[in-house]
Specification:
Helix 17 links the parallel strand 20 and strand 21 (621-624). By secondary structure, the protein is α/β, with parallel strands linked by helices. The protein folds into five domains: 7-134; 143-244, Alpha-Beta Plaits (2-Layer Sandwich); 257-421, YqgF/RNase H-like domain (Nucleotidyltransferase, domain 5); 443-549; 553-665, no CATH class. The chain is extended and about 130 Å long.
């Protein structure tokens, strides 16, 4: 079949069919090659549809509603993976530009239709609308592909055979990663590479390739062997993009100039400041692709400067800077952790904010260091413009100075340059809502930060212990010298007259030193006790965290009493399980705090009626603590359940609350019917 003519398939779901129902949907379909109908059917199953698509390979699949193909975005993306390469077009509009009924579109475009078009007629109208350029292409995938290399199976516990397998798999993954790098380099395909290093090579590697999947598959094939597996998948868009078939004028306003700090790695941190030093965005994420990061930065404005906290500059940061044509800022030598911590903490005090994510902290530190290096110059610019009494865009002057012009030259350029030749002055964008990025990965990083904090305290206590031991040795030497002096004094002939007073003074000093030694020994004992507690707690935390990540246990967040102050004193994250020791003091308002934190369940005995109703209406499961006390476990002051036991309990009480809601709804409905009948009588 010749591909000179564009082949378009129109599709419409049959009445009484739905992608959400248990029965499989059926469709009416028609295929045009230019003006000629090459296929037509009034009833088509989904399986048959896929076969027809692969037989005729249409360029465009036209529908009036994309949700007739699948009930949600994930399912729609999975469905399109089964189709041959094609464009999916929705002819009735998009969420951004508005939707219009298909019969109104047809009438407006002069397409003949009956008063009640059948599904096959609707499918034909879809094709006719696409032929005259009406509709929106539905973009579900990025023009990016992910290549993931990993072990075929887990190593697990064992002896020499597992060690040999581990060493072999690490070496094979490294070898395969290098081979794929060479293949991509030879093809001139751009990519980013993220790896997890291991003892004898690589434990895992992930390529983000900046081209469509069919081009990647022409050079690299998926593989699954006894040692490693290579998976190649298209990267899904986080949000569906609707692209008009005919171009529309871009009315988006110009954006402001920004300074961007980037901490690259498996987890990437990014911080964005404007040229006044105000924080516009703080974000971290795992395996963020370069395209996603560029889109995210571009939402906030024009990146005048890209910053890094390490030297030499990472290639990932250099590529981002080249794309934005940005100035690169990096310190002469890599910033120390203490320097970054102090810089970020002091700056955030005026905003009453804190940053616990190490990746965000590092990206914010380098952005702040870059901004502060220009802070005095920006103040001079402000003062100079005020003195000259000229109406100039201060932000443009700042950008020119950052690019190497003197203040005088920058002002002169903007004063005498014709208005029509000026670069567009970035304007302030609308502030975006704070994104909810506290997911399971971030909670893991916070736990790791806490663990590192405990280890730092342990190291500080150990160092203090060493210092105290040195001080103890000094005091022992002083005592020895004083005792020698006492003996010398006793041997003198003036022992009775002046010697007694001197000896008493020396003995008093000896007793004082001995008392000091006793106090130091007590302090050392207390520090050793604290060190032991920190070591034990650190080991327990690491052990429980491993079990949690292995989905074996559920760790509880313990709350002493049900009060606003107590809830604000601890960190609560979405999906946390709360163990409320005393729930008697809180009401509906206090319950709202936990509801806003999106916890999954509350374990308690004493709970007010208002609080219980508030939790139940919000879908939060309440589990009586006396029902689970026998299964509740504690280690190192941390309460937890076995995952299977907790899931079983959660299911029981979730069903119980669901039944309670159902009964209340049924009673309400009966009362409503009863009232209606009374009024009718």
């Amino acid at each position: 079949m010749s591909r000179a003519l564009k082949i378009i398939m129109g599709l419409d779901i049959l009445p009484m069919s739905s992608t959400s129902s248990k029965s499989k949907p059926k469709y009416a379909a028609i295929i045009f090659s230019d003006e000629k109908i090459i296929f037509k059917t009034e009833e088509l199953t989904l399986r048959k549809l896929i076969k027809i698509l692969h037989r005729y390979k249409p360029d465009i699949l036209a529908v009036d509603n994309i949700w007739e193909l699948a009930p949600n975005q994930d399912a729609l993306q999975d469905t399109l993976k089964k189709y041959p390469p094609l464009k999916l077009v929705q002819v009735t509009g998009s969420p951004a530009y508005g939707m219009q009924p298909i019969h109104k579109l047809a009438k407006r475009c002069g397409i003949h239709l009956t008063s009640h078009p059948t599904p096959i007629e609707t499918a034909e109208i879809c094709v006719r609308l696409v032929q005259i350029g009406i509709g929106f292409e539905v973009a579900l995938f990025e023009k990016e592909t992910q290549i993931r290399l990993s072990r075929t199976r887990n190593i697990g516990p064992g002896g020499w055979s597992q060690n040999r397998y581990r060493r072999h798999s690490h070496a094979v993954i490294l070898q395969a990663t290098r081979a794929i790098q060479n293949q991509l380099d030879e093809q001139g395909i751009e990519y980013d590479l993220s790896v997890r290093k291991a003892d004898y090579g690589l434990d895992r590697s992930v390529f983000t390739v900046y081209t469509a999947m069919n081009e990647v598959l022409s050079a690299i094939k998926p593989y699954s062997g006894s040692t490693i597996q290579i998976k190649i998948t298209p990267i899904k868009k986080k949000e569906i993009e609707f692209i008009p078939l005919t171009s529309k004028e871009d009315e988006s306003p110009p954006l402001r100039s920004i300074i961007v700090g980037i901490d690259p790695g498996t987890t990437t941190g990014v911080s964005i400041l404007d040229l006044n030093g105000d924080i516009l965005a703080l974000r971290s994420g795992k395996e963020i692709s370069r395209r996603d990061l560029i889109k995210y930065i571009a939402k906030f404005g024009s990146a005048v400067m890209i910053c890094s906290d390490v030297s030499p500059l990472p290639k990932y940061v250099e590529k981002i800077a080249n794309i934005f044509n940005s100035i690169i800022y990096r310190p002469r030598k890599s910033m120390k952790v203490s320097e970054k911590q102090e810089l970020v903490t002091n700056y955030l005090k005026k905003f009453n904010r804190k940053v616990s994510d190490a990746h965000i902290r590092d990206s914010l530190a380098c952005a702040l260091k870059a901004y502060l290096s220009y802070h005095n110059i920006f103040a001079k610019i402000q003062k100079r413009i005020q003195e000259m009494n000229v109406d100039l865009p201060i932000e443009k002057v700042k950008v020119l100075v950052m690019r190497g012009y003197s203040i005088y030259d920058a002002i002169s350029i903007l004063t005498f340059k014709p208005e029509e030749e000026e670069d567009s002055i970035p304007e302030e964008p609308q502030a975006t809502d704070n994104e909810k990025i506290r997911n399971l990965n971030e909670k893991i990083y916070l736990m790791i930060d806490k663990n590192l904090s405990l280890k730092r305290k342990l190291e500080d206590s150990t160092a203090e212990n060493v210092e105290l031991k040195k001080e103890l040795e000094i005091h022992k030497n002083d005592i020895k010298k004083l005792e020698e002096q006492v003996e010398q004094v006793r041997s003198k002939t003036f022992y009775r007259l002046r010697g007694e007073r001197l000896i008493r003074a020396q003995i008093s000093e000896v007793n004082r030193q001995r008392k000091t030694i006793g106090e130091l020994r007590d302090k050392i004992a207390r520090l050793n006790n604290e060190i032991s507690k920190y070591e034990t707690k650190s080991v327990i935390m690491e052990e429980l965290e491993r079990e949690k990540l292995a989905n074996k246990i559920v760790i509880l967040k313990v709350v002493e009493n049900f009060s606003k102050e107590c809830l604000e004193s601890i960190e609560i994250f979405p999906n946390d399980v709360i163990y409320l020791l005393d729930g008697s003091g809180g009401g509906a308002t206090t319950a709202e705090q936990l509801i806003d934190s999106d916890v999954s369940a509350v374990i308690t005995n004493t709970l007010s009626h208002d609080a219980f109703e508030q939790f139940r209406n919000s879908g939060i499961v309440i589990i009586p603590s006396e029902e689970v006390v026998t299964e509740l476990k504690m280690k190192g002051g941390i309460y937890y359940f076995d995952k299977d036991v907790f899931d079983q309990k959660l299911k029981i009480y979730k069903e119980e609350q669901h039944e309670m809601n159902r009964q209340e709804a049924e009673a309400w409905l009966q009362n409503l019917v009863s009232d209606y009948r009374k009024r009718k009588e």
